[in-house]
Amino acid sequence: MTTQQDKAQTLAALHARPEILRVVNVWDVTSAKAVAALPQTRALATAGHSIAATFGYADGEKIPLELMLDMVSRIVSATDLPVSADLDSGFGNPGETARRAIAAGVVGANMEDRLRSLDESVAAVKAVIAAGEAEGVPFVLNARTDAFVRAGDRPLAESIADAITRGRAYLDAGADLVFVPGILNAEVTQQLVEGIGHRKISVIGLPGALRAAEYEALGVARISYGPMTQRVALTALQDVAGDLYADGVIPATTRALN
175: closest CA among 194, 208, 200? Predict the structure, then answer.
């Protein structure tokens, strides 16, 4: 039987490989099983935005932590793969939230800084890593900086410099990776990799962003897709519903994935 410690070590090793780790985000048991069934899947990650939306909550820690962790626990129980959870910004207590996530079975997490002060953000990273150590799990933290998505109108160069400063500090505090969401072109990505470290950057796949293979060639370690996967699923649902209202039929290519 694969232990939680083994899964954490596996996730960390996946980040260190030359190939970029492609993580397709899930939000419930059926989506987790559908993705996990693919032979290419090496690990799963939950999408906090998508889980919140599933229960009718807006993104940004509006969903009760207990409800979110209950779904995360169900996802963990549905697969033998390592699962990383989106823990937003820690729900007011990053260390305790990480401890509870570990109790739910996850072996890693995203945690966002929301551009809080560097000292506060570094303290949050340290609290998460300490929680993993206390629970005996080498917790894999994908420390997110919002240097781009919360940049406002500041110059791009300032956002790049801020992301590098924060990223280095988070790695020094024990994070495994630095997650820099945003539509990052090749030039910006190269600067981030050079400033933070080869195979130490995590990105998000968005419309208009580079392809996974292009990020891989630039030295990025991981790509995930956040709420985009649920949006694709809902787009397909709404499209087929419109077709059915127009007297269409269920496509013959539909697979029984639930």
Answer: 200
Q: In b/e form, how buried is each residue of 31-67, taking b as 16+ CB within 10 angstroms?
A: bbbbbbeeeebbbbbbbbbbbbbbeebebebebebee
Distance CA 182, CA 163 (A): 12
Under 8 Å between Cβ of 4 and 133: no
Question: Can you tell me the distance from the alpha carbon of 49 to that of 63, in angstroms, rounded to the nearest whole number?
Answer: 9
Q: How far apart are CA 31 and CA 229, in angstroms?
A: 10
CB 52 within 8 A of CB 59: yes
Q: What is the pTM for the complete model shown?
A: 0.95
- Mean pLDDT confidence for 167-175: 98
Q: How many CB atoms are closer than 10 A to CB 221?
A: 26
Domains of the chain with CATH codes:
4-238 (3.20.20.60)
